[in-house]
Design goal:
Chain lengths: 307, 141
């Protein structure tokens, strides 16, 4: 894989053990699955897992990394997949809903929800109670979202097709929890999808950061007092990550960046200084790198809205 | 939405109790099931609430595959158990010929203890109702 020179120059400064990181991008990653606790009890889970060689994932009892070579296509043709008993999902992608800590009967907003990997996990954690508003502006991506919600049997989800930027004004201080898994330049998925590099450039990163800043304002406005907002991306660009969080913290005095602890995952602190921002608080954000965790690259921040 | 609860009781002997935590909503010949909070949520450009549990058809009500995969476990009648060979055919979208002396109507299809979906049985023929988008070429049972 040939990475753009500018990409290397940017990230060798901030990604630790950069050579290992580059090597990890070449490696074919093992699939991970999530058992759908909405449909599967403990006995059924044991039955399903008998078929797989797997290792458990510490932070979520229904998450497993498959040890043997399996491809997504073949898993998609198994009975357990057809019945919505399993969901193929990258380990890193399971983390934002875990950090969000949704509770039974709460009102949760998943602002940019398609294709629904995180929505269906939130639904499972909430045990099919309360309300999840799963929104996405892209009508084509909504098909995948509805398909996944149907297959996983989520009865607490309302699907909407609004511009995410509108929620803050339409539903001020309405939701207990908000997940903004923002559209991004997707650098963290390079090992799975080399095409990400085709449109990679700094202009694109800045364009995405602008979109993300508008979305995070809307997400924060729609959050109840004492509510939790989780912001995540699958990219490394500081402009799209810490830069967006810094923007929110500077705009709202009542936005408190909280510590994140994910058992079994090696995380790195957020970057505190980059072109455009300098803020020690940003250490509390977490960066998840593929060479430390055999997963996609991710960025996660947890913000509480103080009363 | 007493009619949908009554339908599942009469056709499949699924107790009313099973649906006690949920609400129903009928829209354009589709019946959806959802939590109370989801039913009460309102805004513009809502695509859907909950999942579609059944459709209103010419001769009554037709349960959906998605609905059966959630609530089919509780059925006590109008059930057909499939063997592995027939399961593969059903998941491919094929109809089955079954030497069964049972009344015409919708039947819940089980493989082992798992509710797979729905089929319409008439004159020893089980008409496939698995949606095209859900059909698979089953591997590795």
């Amino acid at each position: 894989m040939k990475l753009p020179e500018k990409f290397i120059l940017r990230y060798e400064k901030i990604i630790p053990e950069f050579t290992l990181f580059l090597k990890s991008l070449e490696k074919k990653r093992k699939l991970s699955i999530r058992i759908n606790s909405l449909k599967v009890n403990k006995r059924m889970m044991e039955e399903i897992l008998k078929k797989y060689d797997y290792e458990s994932i510490t932070f979520y009892p229904y998450a497993f990394r498959l040890k043997s070579e399996r491809d997504e296509f073949s898993i998609g043709n198994t009975l357990e997949h057809f019945l919505g008993y399993i969901y193929v999902q990258d380990i890193a992608s399971m983390i934002p809903p875990i950090v969000l800590e949704p509770k039974k009967y709460e009102k949760v907003l998943d602002l940019t929800a398609a294709p629904g990997s995180k929505t269906t996990l939130i639904s499972a954690i909430m045990e099919n109670t309360g309300l999840i508003v799963a929104n996405d502006i892209n009508i084509d991506r909504l098909k995948a979202l509805t398909g996944n919600i149907d297959r996983m049997g989520c009865l607490n989800v309302v699907i909407t097709n609004l511009h995410g930027e509108r929620f803050g004004n339409l539903f001020p201080e309405y939701f207990d929890k908000v997940l903004l898994d923002a559209p991004c330049s997707s650098e963290g998925t390079i090992s799975k999808n080399y095409e990400v590099l085709n449109h990679w450039n700094e202009l694109y990163i800045n364009k995405m950061a602008k979109i993300q800043k508008n979305l995070i304002i809307s997400a924060f406005k729609s959050l109840k007092k004492d509510g939790i907002l989780v912001y995540s991306t699958c990219t490394f660009a500081p402009e799209e990550n810490e830069g967006v969080i810094d923007f929110l913290l500077r705009r709202y005095d009542n936005a408190l960046l909280e510590e994140i602890n994910i058992p079994g995952i090696k995380t790195c602190e957020g970057i505190t200084e980059w072109e455009g921002f300098k803020n020690e608080e940003l250490k509390r954000c977490v960066r998840i790198y593929p060479h430390y965790n055999e997963c996609e690259g991710f960025f996660i921040a947890r913000i509480r809205k103080l009363p | 939405m007493k009619k949908i609860i009554k339908y599942f009781k009469e056709e499949f002997d699924i107790d009313e109790e099973v649906f006690k935590d949920y609400q129903f909503y009928e829209y354009k010949d589709n019946i959806y099931i959802m939590t109370e909070e989801a039913k009460n949520f309102d805004c513009e450009k809502i695509i859907r609430k909950g999942i579609r549990i059944a459709r209103i058809v010419k001769n009554g009500i037709k349960p959906t595959t998605d609905g059966i995969q959630i609530f089919g476990y509780y059925a006590k009648k109008n059930i057909i158990y499939l063997n592995e060979e027939d399961l593969k055919k059903v998941l491919l979208g094929q109809d089955l010929h079954l030497e069964l002396e049972i009344p015409e109507g919708y039947k819940i299809l089980f493989y082992k203890n798992y509710p797979i979906g729905i089929g319409y049985f008439r004159n020893k023929k089980l008409k496939n109702q698995i949606p095209r988008s859900r059909r698979i070429n089953l591997i590795d049972i």
